[in-house]
Automatic annotation (TrEMBL):
Gene3D superfamilies in the cross-refs: Alpha-D-Glucose-1,6-Bisphosphate, subunit A, domain 3, Alpha-D-phosphohexomutase, C-terminal domain
Family matches, as CDD domains: PGM_like3
Domain Alpha-D-phosphohexomutase C-terminal: 493-539
InterPro entries, A to Z: A-D-PHexomutase_a/b/a-I (IPR005844), A-D-PHexomutase_a/b/a-I/II/III (IPR016055), A-D-PHexomutase_a/b/a-II (IPR005845), A-D-PHexomutase_a/b/a-III (IPR005846), A-D-PHexomutase_C (IPR005843), A-D-PHexomutase_C_sf (IPR036900), A-D-PHexomutase_CS (IPR016066), PGM_a-D-Glc-sp (IPR005852)
Similarity comment text for this entry: Belongs to the phosphohexose mutase family.
All copies of domain Alpha-D-phosphohexomutase alpha/beta/alpha, residue ranges: 43-182, 214-321, 325-441
One Gene Ontology MF term: phosphopentomutase activity
An example Gene Ontology biological process: purine ribonucleoside salvage
Keywords, in A-Z order: Isomerase, Magnesium, Metal-binding, Phosphoprotein
The organism of origin for this protein: Kaistia soli DSM 19436
Listed cofactors: Mg(2+)
Name of this chain's protein: Phosphoglucomutase
Amino acid sequence: MSDTRLSSLAGKPVPRAMLANIPRLMTAYFALTPDAEVAAQRVSFGTSGHRGSAFAAAFNEWHILAITQAVCLYRRQAGITGPLFLGMDSHALSEAAQTSAIEVLAANGVETMIDAQGGYTPTPVISHAILTYNRGRTEGLADGIVISPSHNPPDEGGFKYNPTNGGPADVDVTGWIGKQANAFLLAKLEGVLRMPYARARKAACIHPYDFVTPYVADLANVIDMDAIRGAGVRIGIDPLGGAAVNYWQPVIERYGIDATVVNDVVDQTFAFMTADWDGKIRMDCSSPYAMAPLIALRDKFDVAFANDTDADRHGIVTPSGGLMNPNAFLAASVAYLCANRPEWDSASGIGKTAVSSGMIDRVTAKMGRRLVEVPVGFKWFSKGLIEGTLAFGGEESAGASFLRRDGQVWTTDKDGLIMGLLAAEITARTGMDPSQLYASVTADLGQSFYARIDAPATAEQKMLLSKLDPAQIAATELAGEPIEARLTRAPGNNEPIGGVKVVTRNGWFAARPSGTEEVYKIYAESFLSAEHLKRVQTDAQAVISAVFEAK
């Protein structure tokens, strides 16, 4: 994220007066009724489901009742008859939303599995549960719902559907669910089946389920836990008050590893967090401002890591380098895994998104693997991970997953827990922390200078950018180098990237419209210098401005 508007609070404790008023937030969830005629109050599935704040009438009881009923209808027309695994994170709105969802699921007779202890369930654990249940089955397949706005501020909620492949639903599915949900909103919830919560919890189709034990017990099949224990790696873990908080102690006890959970507090205001770049609270484990407390402990551990609130992202802190750039850890992970997973099929590829670092391309080539570049969104990796044609999938936003040690699928959604444990395995097996491994692996591949910035754009301009034709890019040079490619579709699967990527020999930029703000995002990288990166960014804005002006 750009720090040109850096708040004076960035990296510091948040004043109590700025904390979310949770009683008022919960009142807003139940009291405010969204107006389906107002775009900002309609159900809208982005790359990670429907998100919003109850204060803005963007995530309220009506939304969840309507979406859940739409999911029930989708399951019926898709022939999905197995159990639905339902999980929530520790955002205040998540528990209320789970209550609403259970009322609808029970009324529809959907076999629903909820945490037996009433606790929180990480996104990857839901994916793992779906896939392990479905293994070997051809009918009666399971699916799931994840209630989480990821690392977003405390006053927001999120609701995501994962179909039978265990990964995020694709646009066809979310489009269908969103359309049905908005129809229910317009109809004032007519057609939504619901029963009182007390009755719903006692319904025969609502089942308590132990999510923790199967996931924790299976970790040894994806991570070399023996190596971590044997090397005595000292590990620091910060769940950032999120859904992984009750998973780490069982992991530590089962595998006998030398790990310390440095913060086990769950507080719906997230008052223990330090402010992000703009002064807001975000549980963003790739932000040096949000991660300031764990970074301060870097010398106490051989490696430390954090997860965001639904534990699908990771932030790696090393003694030698502090908080790693997410792209750097992805590249180091690819190098390590390719060299240390002998049972993986040598033909399986390495997946990355179009806006992730070109260093991943270089490391993948060095390891003799095939690169698969896809649009933004982890859903593009799901099929390859299930089939084993992809061994690893990673996003620049610090989300990744990879195959089990025997080459079978682990999860088809991002898994921040195994990425943190992988950092410990790397330290155990190589004698280097992940920052040192990255430096070693990339010493002969050049140096990456990578950044993301934002630039203003109207709604009309964002729409134009999302549907751009490569021929609309008139420029022939970028930062003094000839343009070699103008891409609006990802080379790995020929799917639209929702913007444009312009590539030269030593640099590139990608421009994509923001789904929530009047800006577009510019991802850029140079393999020459920080100064060259700035030229790439400046030229990128000029290229996009020329497109806007030509319209």
